[in-house]
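To start, one record:
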Amino acid sequence: MEKCVAVVGCGLWGRNIVRNFYNLNALHSVCDLDTENLKMVSEAYNDVNITQDFNEILSNPDIIAVCIITPSHTHFNMVKKALLAGKHVYVEKPISTSSAETLELKELAEKMNVKLLVGHLLLYHPAVNRLKMLIAEGALGKIKYAQSDRLNINYFKNDRSVMWDLAPHDVSMIAHVTGKKPLRVLNAVGVDSEFENICDITHLTIEFEDGVIGQVSDSWIHPQKRVSLLVRGEKATAILDDTIAEGKLKIYDNKKNAQNDIEVFDYLEIEPLKLECQHFLNCIKNDKTPRSDGENGYMIVKVLEEAEKVILGSKKEILDNHEFKLSRSK
């Protein structure tokens, strides 16, 4: 495929997107407001066009696809402009923090007959897809429960909350491997540990189809990184630990001593981001629907939007009860 992709936003994560599309010989241009970021791109890839003008990207007929790797609050307006310009769009998760906006973008992409891919990266992870195959084959039996923990330190809290930053990965991954759609939020708790009016710890309990319960824990303040997925079926339990280099995926027989009965499953070691970028290009070339399309993005945003309402409602209830107790004690 000729060089036809522009990446908008080349910060810490955007540079990885730039690298992958460059290595796939598809990168045409990079756009960023930060001149230092553009300087780094120019020095590393001297045959790539750079610009600070998003409109220049949209008006260039040689650019048929745009990757938007900017803060989430900018996604809706930028994605909408790109779709209206007839560009295929790859947007980092979440596609938006509003289900109404997400639905509008999904329907606009369909109307313009262009591809819309949301960066739910773990849907392209080889170990995650190996687990999905095992579940489909019945290796775990009927699925009952899934738990995803994504805990780490983050000093750059430029998102609405840790939930919007990390939980799109967890919810989309659980839905993907189990083949069950999320139905409703049973419970959601958020903690603002540093009193900055932004939740840096969240815990969600979600009901999926067929009674599968999913629990998702995300943190920006955890000094020990933990990235794990547990899926329990009637026969066996799978654990995927993405913090270790080898043997990430293990299956435990529910009826045997876990320490003595572990089966480790192999999979191809390919960078998930490379696979996601390749998938985007293949969908454009072969007119296929992306695995993480607008519908997938809408499903995830709808769940997280509901969870946020529960969190905010719980906080208000706690505050109201606290004020009531204080008033009664006077």
Summary: The chain has two domains: 5-121+275-293, 122-270. The two ends are 73 Å apart (CA to CA). Confidence is low (pLDDT under 50) at residues 326-330. The longest helix spans residues 294-329.
